[in-house]
Write a structure and sequence with these properties.
With 382 residues, the protein is of the alpha+beta class. 35% of the residues lie in helices and 21% in strands. It contains 10 helices and 16 strands.
Length: 382
Amino acid sequence: MTPLTPDFRATLADAQPPCLSLYQPTHRHHPQNQQDPIRFGNLVKELEQSLQQKYSADEIAQLIQPLETLAGNTEFWDHTRDGLAVFAAAGIFQVYGTQRPLPELAVVAESFHTKPLRRLLQTADRYQVLGLTRDAIRLFEGNRDALDEIDPAPGVPRTLTDALGEELTEPHSTVASYGGGAGAGGAMHHGHGGKSPEVEIDDERFFRAVARAVTEHHSQPSGLPLILAALPEHQAVFRGVSHNPALLEAGITTNPDALSEEELREQAWEVFEPQYQARLKALKEEAAYASSKKLGSDDLTEVATAAVAGRVQTLLLEAGRRLPGRIDSKTGDVTRAKLDDPQTDDLLDDLADLVSEMGGEVVVVPSEGMTTDTGLAAIYRY
């Protein structure tokens, strides 16, 4: 599966129709996950039936073949998360796993239906965790409900050797691992009554390389807050060399290898939740103040007009709220509709598209966090 990042739509932008979009909830564990490939197969059949209205058997076979291959991949279905999104077109096949369930949806259209994934990316409770020891790193991405390990991007050193190679400072201590498995303390250095100056130099060099690469390849592209999980002495060294504005002041001061993923998620959420709640409170207060000064609104028609004009600086949307209809991207005119089929547009998603295209920020907040009953609140630039 491909990691889900804010620029995921760029990989789909040049697709030629027909464009196939498939969404479904999935399950992490047995026996619930046994139903997932069956549900996937049923959605593939829906796509095929839709294609039969317009395309030849050969064209359909080429488009459907990668999905059928995925349906039969037992290894894939044994390692799913909470949701699945698949996009297929000529020369394009992208598969994304998500940490929240997705509604079942099978759409054949002129372009990909990407709004459910974009909404996930704009949810305010997402964060990343950097697990750091003196000779290796691990990266995780999570929210209040789930935490999953992710592969470091190319260019991010995973180990001391990746970072320094043959350039270890000499003389260097002999290193022997001990403990093994969860709870291991990392490495033990012989012949030096504690860390040698050379080891301390290499620690700093390794941490500096990691800090720079994680900032460039993960924090900047994702825009997510970063939580450091490391022993106190490693926390101090890493923070001394890091210039990552996404790095939170509070961290997890435990060897990350000593924690299960669930324990790591619990501690990460304990670190992140105060910042998350403070941000939501500040946004709600700012939205209320802006509305009182006529510099914001919770009225869909007013906000749509402002969005087209590029006036919306921040848009708060209620998670899970759907308003069927369409917004004219040129005039901002709102047309209400009934949500009779999965291809009917969602007004709130259309509004989010307009705001994003104009450089505004979209934040999805839980329903209990909204102070309006319209499903939205906007803060204007002017």
